[in-house]
Amino acid sequence: MAKKRIGKLKRSAHKVSASTDDLLLAILEQGGDGTKTGRYLLTFKEGATSEGLRFLKSEGGFRVADARDFKNQAVNFEEVGDAEALVFPEIGVALLGGGAASARGLNTEALIAEDSPTHSIDHEYFMFATHLNPPDYLKGALRAVETIYADLTESEITGEVSPEVLGVTWGLAACKVPGSNFNGNGIKVAVLDTGFDLGHPEFAGRAFVPHTFVGQPVQDLHGHGTHTTGTACGPVTPPGPIQRYGIGFRTQIFAGKVLTNTGTGSQAQVLSGMNWAIANRCAVISMSLGAQIPAQPSYTSAGAAALAAGCLIVAAAGNASTRPGHIAPVLAPANSPTIMSVAALDNALRVAAFSCGGKVDIAGPGVGVFSSWPRPTLHNTISGTSMATPHVAGCATLWAQSNPALRGLALRAKLIATARHLPYLHTDVGAGLVQAP
Questions:
Q1: Is 224 a residue of the active site?
Q2: pTM value?
Q3: Residue 71: which domain range?
Q4: Of the residues 76, 109, 128, which one is the last residue of a structural domain?
């Protein structure tokens, strides 16, 4: 039975419909590069998506699925059937099955020829909710789910906050959220993460548009997605003696599960969530995830498409530094020029020891951040650039509500122009600490 399972994985793992688990296990069995899925991403030249779609079908002979085949472009990977390619038209990117690409003898030279609609062809990578060592994680994928869960949650700093502490979190106070006259009403915000606890009592009655891109229910069994959503969009007055931890408390929440309950996913799953959020014109797209890889053309194209559509993507810079000794470079997708990169600060407004540096645009509170957590816990206090990112996303929703002209590039410019200056290098904190209107 085990041999049959392995054989099946080898035959199917590189399909566009393959699950994250199948991709991970196939890489383990084959002894391949633990950072790559074995599939490829084609990024089309600007404005050439339709031509690229025809190119894949006619020249490449691929069986092609299109995100537009699904309502509101909410792709279900399990329903693409035997497709060998999947096109994300909003962002100008296509996923290719590794086996199909190899069988057709596709190579970089042919695909990026001068008369080709393709800008680049690149390996697809695994993505993570927080900074992890991918090879170590892949070894752990064969362990019990409970063990993997423990490994992932230990990668963020945890602590306790007394429930008797009232008022607002230090992060909201530092960002001047309590004094704002805005609440995010009428603004769509997409949080692309590990999902959300849709039964969380402090979000009862809120407008949610949930969708999963990983073959698991949106219900968050990890915690990361519920925490980040809580900061960006949580309630103004949580019941009981609980401090306020949420910013855009009247936003419409698009909860995109692009990472599994073990906190991992593929680049295509993340891109499908970005494509969905842009297709639905979410003014703000929050992404507390990444991988230690160079800037990816697919992410850069997605960021540019978002800006052109009046959307703004903010993403975590990463937690791989050990300051002051080692400052690690910003992770993808935050290292793309079209995506806003967020560094983390502590409650003394110092750069967090773990915060990555280099291509940093802005900073947010990221140490000891209190927010929502899946039931029965309800709340947790953790740290990371993952926690700083939804502070920026939440403030962005308030600015977007304040003026309908503040969309895309204009919203990005406003966040940078109004940030609180800090006495640190631009490569550490960008324009400074994000501020609410």
A1: yes
A2: 0.90
A3: 2-128
A4: 128
Question: Could you report the per-residue pLDDT of 114-126, keeping only the tens digit for each?
Answer: 778 999 999 999 9
What is the tally of structural domains in the chain?
Answer: 2
Instruction: Say how far residue 60 (Cα) sits from the centre of its chain.
Output: 31
What confidence tens digit (pLDDT) does each residue in 72-109 have? 999 999 999 999 999 999 999 999 998 777 766 665 45
Cβ contacts of 308 within 8 Å, gap of 6 or more:
408
Whether 182 and 304 map to the same domain: the answer is yes
Residue 310 lies in a domain: yes
| CA 255/CA 210 separation, integer angstroms | 5
Tokens in use for 199? 């039964």
- What's the pLDDT band for 162 if we cut at 50, 70, 90? very low
Catalytic-role residue among 193, 197, 220, 361? 193
Q: Catalytic residue, from 116, 286, 386, 391: name it.
A: 386
Specify if 138 maps to a domain.
no
Q: Which residue has the tokens 């793992």?
A: 13
In which band, very low, low, confident or very high, does the pLDDT at 283 lie, cut at 50, 70 and 90? very high
Indicate the residue among 109, 128, 147 that finishes a domain.
128
386 is catalytic: yes
Q: What is the CATH number of the domain that holds 330?
A: 3.40.50.200
Q: Count Cα neighbours of 279 within 13 Å in the Cβ-side half-sphere.
A: 20
Has 286 been annotated as catalytic?
no
Which residue of the set 14, 119, 224, 391 is catalytic?
A: 224
Within this chain, do residues 360 and 404 fall inside the same structural domain, yes or no?
yes
Distance between start and end Cα atoms, the chain: 60
pLDDT value, residue 33: 74
Matching residue, tokens 């092609």: 64
